[in-house]
Amino acid sequence: MKSKAMIQVDDRRIEADEVEIPRLGPENALLRVEACGLCGSDVEQYRGAFTAKGLVQYPLIPGHEPVGIIEELGAEAARAWGVKEGDRVALEPHLSCGLCHLCLAGSYHLCKAVRSEGLPAYGYMPLTFGHGLWGGYGEYIHLHPRTIMHVIPDGIPLEMATMYQALAAGVRWAVHVPETAMGDTVLILGCGQRGLGSVIACREAGAGTIIVTGLAKDRHKLALAEALGADHTIVVDREDTVARVMALTNGEGADVIVDVVPAAAHPIVHAIEVARLGATIVIGGVKGRDTTVEIDTDKILYKELVVKGVYSQGREAYEESLRILSENRYDLGRLKTHRFALDDAEQAILTLGGEVEGEEAICVSLHPGGP
Q: Are residues 145 and 84 located together in one domain of the fold?
């Protein structure tokens, strides 16, 4: 039995092929992929940013946001995961050992104990590692024993379920990591799916004022940010970001700044400028090749700022994400703009990456069964 898959073989080149589905062991399961969400890192991966930094090797099957049905299940896997055949689940990307100091300290998403030629995560491991069937851009995924998954509550439509990671990112990056509290002023740099997820998470946490930035071409995203609970939006290519933030905060600045801008490092400079004394700056946007920027380190020192990078989500963030999706108090279907058939993976990536004229993408997903 084989699984159709879209395989990235080079920068900006994805080809359709079939991969053999290996025999199921007692600690494994077979996931039938119903849909796979795309995020900004899919775009950077497609463009070659991750190979340039030695993080991945071709060929590989991309896709780290899969939602699917447990098709077959080994006995040990059933006991370990507490799932059964027929369950709809969402995968966490990372494979961790559960035994090292990082895992025991709760940072299991940073574990590198699973030795792969790429990042030890779904969507990033090459075909040469194990069976190779590791990505969500395919009909099936053969699940590793170290997989972490979450059963999707009944009532969450598939279209919305594919947004589980974008919302979990907002929860962890904009609330859990900076410890956002009721009444805080939060500046969210970037209005893509993780920026919008941050708006929702901060509104849930009781933030006092939420400010979101974007480009003039992002007007549809900025309008949605306001509809989801943002108090103010700033068009950064038409306004002075620093001046506007300081005016909106009566010269005080922001308590929390979340940078989810892709491919541009300069917003970090703005973050330091508008940070309130003792503020926390969280950097979550993948910059790709543009990672060098000049900053005034004395401002970080004298303001006693906390600058924190974030790489992934985590169990509590995923559970909160699924709760928000289940309750759907924010009419989250508005975030879903595009769905594509599996064969159209490249078109989906180009659409999300803003390379298709006239398309205004926010949340995009691939569907092996057709669009």
A: yes
